[in-house]
Amino acid sequence: MTPTNCSSETAQWFLGQGYAVMFVLRLGYGATGGPWTETFGTCDDADYYHAGLETARQIRAMVAYAPKIEDIDASDIIVVGHSAGGWGTLAFNSMPHPTVGTVINMAAGRGGYQGAPNVTCQPERLVEAARRYGETATAPMLWIYARNDHFFGPSLAQEMYDAYTAGDDEVQFEHVGSFGEDGHQLFFARGGSRIWGPLIETYLGD
């Protein structure tokens, strides 16, 4: 894997809103090297909860590094995570994060697409882990999923949301229409910002 570059549509949208953008590869991805520590184990005994906490640990390291970058105002950081990174944002938000004012989940989950669309290892464990994260959530969130997400389809996304919020309306859930051949790619795909951009802009404005 390689980081998305600054000329990408995703980066340009946030830059256009006046934000500095930092793309970081977590341990074990691409040229970052090191051990891949985010495994959830086997499909038969998936531990999504602790896998997400490890992703969150690495997100916290990235957030801690941001103030060291010259000319960066790190007083109000936005953390956006996609897919496994999005799952990490749920775990991250279960911990205190005083410099992060906004947390956004784009198509979060783990264990999806096991040989075919919407086949997930132990989906009930994914829902249970989401519930545990939500019990100690420290800030509102925005969740965005496409209806034709081949990794985490509408019913599973809704179950995770319901478990995470447990009736708390501070988490905004946006289930957008189908996008391309697989809506799981919405965040980084060409044309995707026309869909998620206005949602994030409105959310940040609120």
TrEMBL record:
Highest taxon of the lineage: Bacteria
InterPro entries reported for this sequence: AB_hydrolase_1 (IPR000073), AB_hydrolase_fold (IPR029058)
Coiled coil: none
Residue span, AB hydrolase-1 domain: 14-162
Protein name as it appears in the record: AB hydrolase-1 domain-containing protein
Annotated organism of origin: Pseudolysobacter antarcticus
Lineage of the species this protein comes from: Bacteria, Pseudomonadati, Pseudomonadota, Gammaproteobacteria, Lysobacterales
